[in-house]
């Protein structure tokens, strides 16, 4: 049976992370997380971590946007937009302050009870990430995070606590946020401090193996405790293009994508691929595999793939030539066909459709776009108006390409959650001025402001997208019934073709390949009835959409 169009129960919403929105970093028994010792940075200044909390320093996560106290008001905004889901994360250190305790913090559990209850009251389905850059600071300092195998058990205990407590409230779960980011950011993802030396990859991939085990154990526990729930993995997806058709560039991009997909391969297939094992062996990396690990991975395969999509990357084998010559954020080659954001991120809506097709072709399990968004500087007028047409353009173009992937390509997609529906602290830079939301929050990069919320123009556009289940972003039809058409199908045996198509004996793809429809006649010159006119027009519009 073919997966058809956008389902009526498609999940529309937004995505948040506890460390970037909640605040209340030391209230109600919460312990420090790795995010709580990160200072603010900027587009040109990298964020730094401190050894514990240093007096006089500004830590963006400590207050963030105070979602901890404002969540009821913010959820009302989300409900007004039409959300039927909201992705949030549970701060691990709010439940287990140090991470290795035997008993959880009841006040922390109660907060998420209240949050989920309020969401469900508004018919907003919780989509919950277990670990979103919020590892307890104590585990990082005492154990070097997931480099130490003991953290596998600590995470499993935390996950089981969450599953049991919220079994009646949460149907959709994710294990680790953007786990493939461990390669470049092992501290934020896994609490690992890895020296940049010859042992860097050994250290990071050791931690990754432990995270795979922890995630697999969580998946197995979720299936046992909440059989009706779905639990997925989550990666940051970079859509890779070859800079040229030069074979070296094509192979370079192919290898880049394989490294990117290494993380999903393990979590979806329950094993390391031969290619990954060969690659690690070539670089002298030995995974800390012990008896039983392979069985754990096999029994902990995820139900779906969640991913973030912000940009594409253009890969060239001539890496050194691209440094300093317009390469993008991740040192890819400059792509002259794609514009970039204020922070240098390529804006590539078509890349989202390419990404959806790539992932679905590779894994054939449901997908979930759990992050997609644009960080930009917003101007607010004296009467609190924010005209963010750049965000509206980004949103509508990406949703349009997403719909094509579902409607035209048959990709099985669970939902779409915009990052972020309200302005929050940007994790990459620690800034507030890098704004993603449909709702403006009055706070600046130095922590000053009233925290008042104001609706942006994009709020109403997303509201309409959700109301119409995405139909409002469809490109305007070029052909309409009974219009004076200047360009129409001309093909030998038109009536016979129409009859075959109407009987389902010829697909539009076969028609396109077999005849390569030429458009140069008027529709009213053909002796066809209204139904056949509709069929021709539908074919024209569908083929042009391809």
Walkthrough of the structure:
- This protein has 546 residues and is α/β, with parallel strands linked by helices.
- It has 2 domains: 11-473, Glycosidases (TIM Barrel), CATH 3.20.20; 489-545, no CATH class.
- It is built from 18 helices and 14 strands.
- The chain has helices spanning 18-21, 67-81, 92-95, 106-121, 137-143, 150-165, 186-190, 200-225, 247-269, 274-282, 293-299, 319-322, 349-363, 389-407, 457-467, 494-502, 508-515, 530-545; strands spanning 11-15, 85-89, 125-131, 172-176, 230-242, 304-315, 339-340, 346-347, 367-371, 413-419, 439-441, 453-455, 489-490, 518-519.
- The strands form 4 sheets. An 8-stranded parallel β-barrel has the order 1-2-3-4-5-6-9-10, surrounded by 4 helices.
- Helix 14 links the parallel strand 9 and strand 10 (413-419).
- Helix 2 packs parallel to helix 4 (106-121) and helix 14 (389-407) runs parallel beside helix 15 (457-467).
- The radius of gyration is 25 Å and the shape is globular.
- The model is unreliable at 323-329, 479-492 and 508-530 (pLDDT under 50).
Shape: globular
**CATH topology (fold) name of the largest domain:** TIM Barrel
Provide the low-confidence segments as ranges.
323-329, 479-492, 508-530
What is the name of the CATH superfamily of the largest domain?
Answer: Glycosidases
Mean pLDDT: 88
Question: For the largest beta sheet, what order do the strands appear in spatially?
Answer: 1-2-3-4-5-6-9-10
Number of helices: 18
State the secondary-structure class: alpha/beta
Do you know the CATH architecture of the largest domain? Answer: Alpha-Beta Barrel
Radius of gyration: 25 Å
State the domain count: 2
Largest sheet: 8 strands, parallel, barrel
CATH class of the largest domain: Alpha Beta
| Termini Cα gap | 21 Å
GO molecular function, one term: 6-phospho-beta-glucosidase activity
GO cellular component, one term: cytosol
EC number: 3.2.1.21, 3.2.1.86
Pfam families: Glyco_hydro_1 (PF00232)
